[in-house]
Amino acid sequence: MYLPKAKANDQILFNRFNETLEATVIKRYENSVVVRLTEDSYKKVHEELPNDLTVVNDRNYQIMYISSENKELA
After folding, report:
1. Cβ neighbours of residue 72 under 8 Å, at least 6 residues apart?
2. What's the CA gap between 19 and 73, in Å, rounded?
3. φ and ψ at residue 56, rounded to 5 degrees
4. I want to staple 61 with a disulfide (CB 3.0 to 4.6 A). Which of 9, 14, 17, 24 is the partner?
5. Can you say whether the dihedral through the CA atoms of 17, 65, 68, 31 is positive or negative?
6. Over the stretch 19-71, which tens digit does the pLDDT of each residue have?
7. CA-to-CA dists, residue 65 to 16, 22, 48, angstroms
8. pLDDT value of position 1
9. CA–CA separation, 26 and 30 (whole Å)
10. What is the C-alpha R_g of the chain?
11. How many CA atoms lie within 13 A of 70 on its CB side?
């Protein structure tokens, strides 16, 4: 089954440390994305992470919102 891959500025949901987190994609790699956690999500896991950036594998997230600039490219 094909799942679309998130691109820069898309919003995603993923699970980490038994929490569901929201984030915005900063950079796309071949099989993963670098994301910036929302303020609310970072508050949930700030003791586990040194900052609000993390890497998420493509198999481990769902796209919540596709950025308008990415919709034009589709």
Report:
1. none
2. 32
3. -130, 130
4. 14
5. positive
6. 999 999 999 999 999 999 999 999 999 999 999 999 999 999 999 999 887 76
7. 19, 11, 26
8. 63
9. 14
10. 12
11. 14
